[in-house]
Each structure stands twice: as C-alpha cells, then as structure tokens.
Amino acid sequence: MLRRSLFLVRHGQYDTEDSTAREGGLTEIGREQARQIAQRLRGMQFDATYCSTLRRAEETTAIIAAELPGAEVQRARVLCECVPCIPPAFAHYFTKTRPEEIEHGASQSLAAYERFFKRPGRANRRELLVCHGNLIRSFVCRALGLPIESWLNLNTHNCGLTIIHVFGDGLRIMESFNDIGHLPAELHTR
What we know:
There is one protein chain. The chain has helices at about 30-40, 55-65, 100-115, 135-145; strands at about 5-10, 50, 75, 125-130, 160-165, 170-180. By secondary structure, the protein is of the alpha/beta class. Helix 2 (about 55-65) links the parallel strand 2 (about 50) and strand 3 (about 75). The longest helix is centred in the middle third of the chain and has 18 residues, at about 100-115. The protein starts with a strand and ends in an 11-residue tail after the last strand. About 35% of the residues are buried. The mean pLDDT is about 95.
C-alpha cells in the first residue's frame, strides 16, 4: 500500500538569552545535536525537505541537509512555533498569551497538518520536516485521533525524531515518537 512517511525533527537547543529569544540561534550543544541527527539520517533519500522559517530550525536544517544527497530545503512559515490550543487544565501557563496569538496558533497548526499529512499520491513519499516541539506534538495528536488539547501532555527533546506514516487508505501509524537514541545522555535537552 502506498504511504507518505513524515520524519519530524525538532530543532536543536537554542539561545534563549538572546534578546530575541524566539529567533535565537543554536547553542554549541544545539549544533552538536543537529550533527548527531544528521548522522542518523545520513544517506537517506527524501522527496522533500521542509523547515520552519525561525532561525533555530533553519540552522538545524542546514546541518542536516549537508548530509543528505541532493536535499533542497523549502522554508515554510506554517511550520513556525505556535500554541495549537490552550488545554483548560493548564490555562494558568498561558495567562500572558494574547487571544489573537492563540487563534493564530490554532489555525496555523491545523493548516500545517492539512498541508503535510495528506495521503500519498501515486508513489511512496518520504518527507523531512524540521520544526518545533508544540507543532510536532499537535501533529501527533491529530494523526492519532487524540484530542488536540493533549499536546501539552507530550514531551519533545531537541533533535528528537518522530516518524508518522500516512497510508493511501487514510490510516496513520506512528513508528516512533521523540526518539533520541542517536543522542548521548549529555545532549538530552528540552
């Protein structure tokens, strides 16, 4: 049966002390995490490689793409970090988040899912998406049919690998979630 295989990688650790923390670049640990996931994916053929337009994701993608034969990276704003929704039980974590930011995050996360989690066309596809933890967690919830509010109950490490297959009949199977087996313990960061 035909399938679209989505390899989702969270960006490496980034500088949160940067004056524009949302745009912070990778730390040395983040660059090493990216090198480790690049080694894990080395030599794999991807039909497409996408990344968020935020600096930490672009830097992670550049390191990974150097190990992938013929990888052409396509930047996608829809893969930027967002808050997909506010789970009612955890609303106290989001008191400083503006309502329009929540509305934008909800529509963005759904648009990203609908764009990338389509059934395969006439051939198998393997796609790499380098993006952000909240978005990956929302993708997992949607793909598995879980309430979107469950995203906050999932954990993602920097440069963790999640693989989800979308089959021609619509079945979605998660092969791995937040796999960090390629990272030594000293590189495990959230």
